[in-house]
Structure formats: structure tokens, C-alpha cells
From TrEMBL:
<dbReference type="Pfam" id="PF15000">
    <property type="entry name" value="TUSC2"/>
</dbReference>
<dbReference type="GO" id="GO:0051881">
    <property type="term" value="P:regulation of mitochondrial membrane potential"/>
</dbReference>
<protein>
    <submittedName>
        <fullName>Tumor suppressor candidate 2-like</fullName>
    </submittedName>
</protein>
<dbReference type="GO" id="GO:0005739">
    <property type="term" value="C:mitochondrion"/>
</dbReference>
<dbReference type="InterPro" id="IPR029393">
    <property type="entry name" value="FUS1"/>
</dbReference>
């Protein structure tokens, strides 16, 4: 299953500008009141968009299939069922996670000295 075009457009349209705030939060000197993060925003994410669907019976799954009898071959085949599915909606995360657009370096690896591993010795 591929991504929906709407979810891709939302990813493109909401870059780091989420942390900069809106023009309403700008002071007269051009800076935001709280620096980089707008008032009321958090660095953590508490919910995510669910990837599953509810069917007419209330069952929850990623995909639904239905058994159908093929008219020409008289065999029973499984066909994907896409009608009358309701998205799961927002799902609570088990623990808070950092926002994906967090403009902070959490761990700088430029000062690490990584030694190349030696090739394994062959016995014989």
C-alpha cells in the first residue's frame, strides 16, 4: 500500500516553520516571544496518525479481504475490500517522542574518531 497524496503534501507543507511560529506571535522587534518555539508548542509528540481502518462490523485491520467466487474459473479467490472503511484516527503513543522537525543537534558525531575495522582473517 502506498502513501496517500494528502499525507505527502502535509509532510512537504509543514517543514521547520512549525517551530518559528506565526506572524501573530511576532513582537515589534521581529523576534518571537519565546525564541524559536512558539508559545503553546511542545518539542514532544504525544499522538500519531493511525494506519489502520475500521470496517462495517467494527473490526480493525490494515487491509481487508473478501472471498469471491470467480465466474469464469469457478475458483474462490481473495479480493481486497476497500469500500466503507473508516480511518482509525489519532492514536496515543506509549511514551512521548521528539518532534521530527526538531532543529537541534542531539549528538554531534564530527569529533568521533572511527577506526576502520580490519578484514576477517581466513583460517588455513
Amino acid at each position: 500500500m502506498g502513501q496517500a497524496a494528502s499525507s505527502v503534501s502535509k509532510l512537504v507543507s509543514s517543514p521547520i516553520t512549525w517551530f518559528r511560529g506565526s506572524d501573530k506571535q511576532k513582537r515589534s522587534d521581529g523576534l518571537t516571544q519565546n525564541g524559536l518555539i512558539p508559545k503553546g508548542a511542545t518539542l514532544f509528540v504525544f499522538k500519531r496518525r493511525g494506519s489502520m481502518f475500521f470496517d462495517e462490523d467494527g473490526d480493525l485491520a490494515h487491509e481487508f479481504y473478501c472471498e469471491e467466487k470467480d465466474i469464469h474459473t469457478k475458483k474462490v479467490v481473495m479480493r481486497q475490500y476497500n469500500r466503507n472503511l473508516i480511518p482509525e484516527g489519532d492514536v496515543d503513543l506509549p511514551y512521548p517522542r521528539l518532534h521530527g522537525d526538531l532543529p537541534v543537534i542531539l549528538f554531534d558525531t564530527s569529533s568521533l574518531q572511527i577506526q576502520p575495522s580490519s578484514p576477517p582473517h581466513s583460517a588455513g
